[in-house]
Structures are given as C-alpha cells and as structure tokens.
From TrEMBL:
It holds the Pfam family 7tm_4. The keyword Transmembrane helix applies. This is Olfactory receptor. PANTHER family: OLFACTORY RECEPTOR. SUPFAM superfamilies: Family A G protein-coupled receptor-like (SSF81321). InterPro entries: GPCR_Rhodpsn, GPCR_Rhodpsn_7TM, Olfact_rcpt. Belongs to the G-protein coupled receptor 1 family. Its main location: membrane. It is found in: Cell membrane. One of its GO terms (cellular component) is plasma membrane. It comes from Pan paniscus (Pygmy chimpanzee). Residues 50-299 form the G-protein coupled receptors family 1 profile domain. It is a multi-pass membrane protein.
Amino acid sequence: VSLQELMQPESGANGTVIAEFILLGLLEAPGLQPVVFVLFLFAYLVTVGGNLSILAAVLVEPKLHSPMYFFLGNLSVLDVGCISVTVPSMLSRLLSRKRAVPCGACLTQLFFFHLFVGVDCFLLTAMAYDRFLAICRPLTYSTRMSQTVQRMLVAASWACAFTNALTHTVAMSTLNFCGPNEVNHFYCDLPQLFQLSCSSTQLNELLLFAVGFIMAGTPMALIVISYIHVAAAVLRIRSVEGRKKAFSTCGSHLTVVAIFYGSGIFNYMRLGSTKLSDKDKAVGIFNTVINPMLNPIIYSFRNPEVQSAIWRMLTGRRSLA
C-alpha cells in the first residue's frame, strides 16, 4: 500500500491497510514520561522565548538594522519553526498517551521539517557571504549587500528549500508500506520511514544523497571558501584589537555552522546501517531541539550589541542611536 492509498483506509491484497504510524517516542519507561515532558516543554519555551527576543530586538533596535542582523532575525524565525514542527506534537502525544499518527500528518511533518532545515542551510551560507563582503570588500559592501540583495537571498533560500522538501515528500508518498508501522523515533523523518517500507528505497536513498550533496555540500563549500578569504583578510590586519573584533563577528556564526552541519551529516549520511539505534534519537534531539535552543544563546552571549538591545527592550529603554 502506498502512502497515497493510506489516506483511504480500505482493505487491500496484503491484508489490513496501514492508515497510521506509531511513534514510539524517546523512552518506553512510563515512569520517565513526565520528566521527558517537563524537559522538552522547558526547552521549547526557552527556544521560542530566546529566538523571539532576538527577532524583536532586531526589529526594534536601530543599531541592529544591518544585513547581518536581518539574516539573524530570519534565522530566529526558522528556529522557532523547526522546533514547533516536532516538539508540540510530541508533547501532546505524551499528554494524551496516544502514539498513533495519521500518515498524512506524518508526511506534513516531514515536509515542514525539511523545509525549515533547508532554509536554515542556505541562510547560514548567506550569512557567511555577508561576513565575506563586510571584511574582504568593505568599500563596496553597502551596494553589494543592499536590501534588495538581502531579500533576494532569503527568497532564493526559501525557494530551494521548498523544492527540496517537496521532492522528498512526493518521493516518500510513492513508497509501499504493508507493515510493521512502528517508527522508533519521536517525529517522522526519512531514515526511519525508509526502514518500514516494504518496497525498494534505493532510488529514495540515492535521491537523498544526490539532493543532500547539492543542498548541504554546495553551501558548506561556499562557507569554507568565504571563511578562507575572511581569515586571510583578518590576518593582514596589524592591530590585535582589529583582529579580535573581526573574528568575534564570525565566531558565533562558525559555531552554529559546525553544530548544524555536524549533526545533519551524522543523521543522513549513514542510511546504509541495517538498524537505526537510540543514537539516532539523540541526533534527532540535537537537530530539532538543541540547535534551535543554542542559536540565540550563542549569538547573544558572544554579541554585546544583541545583549544590550535585548536588555534595553526588556527594560523599556530606547537606544540613543
């Protein structure tokens, strides 16, 4: 039975039709479920609160009306979207104790998760390009990184990510699922669903590697090239203070890039393994919860301008700029 047919529960040649998947969640021990609920609810509130604080500071504070913070504001929106696709539904299942998820809802979650992660991927590249222009091409920075260019980069990121997410979702809908239907995870994702398919997933896995190479490999290469030029330019700065200031604006971004790509590569580049273990759940937590929660912490802790803007916003003071 294909996922398209699963929307219409009727009996087929292979017996009972699978109309839903059972998400096993993080832990099977019932006694630990309240602890998991409290921890994930706390992480969700911290992530949403932190990212929305950064977004509000970027919108309100005149000092933060620059390309770097425009991209940071967009990144905050994506982080809220990314965690909202997975965590609230998991929390509702913990409360209701119902682990069944309709196939249509599973596909929808898959689509939006890959949409937000895809935009994140391209946006991090746009931020690296912004740092490259600011440090290596300061004289032409304002014209090369105009508001029109910023909007075009964000729009292109959404368009590419939408195409990627739709491609994987449509490809997944063509697979046959004739049982079992237990997903050993807390959200629907490609590797876990590939394991349950009773038809060949070779083409789907090939598609994931090919598109993944374009979606992750190309941005990663562009980020590395940008920072090689940035490092070379910074090392030419004679004053120690000047070097420190230039590197500080790049440090936060490089930290986020390392965490994002590290967890992503581990999750999707090991599809050949016959059994997906609890390590995949840990990586899933990293992708969907830890990354979005760390981003506002990394950017605010390492950036005095963001810190002071959030503080002024919270205390009701206006910037003198």
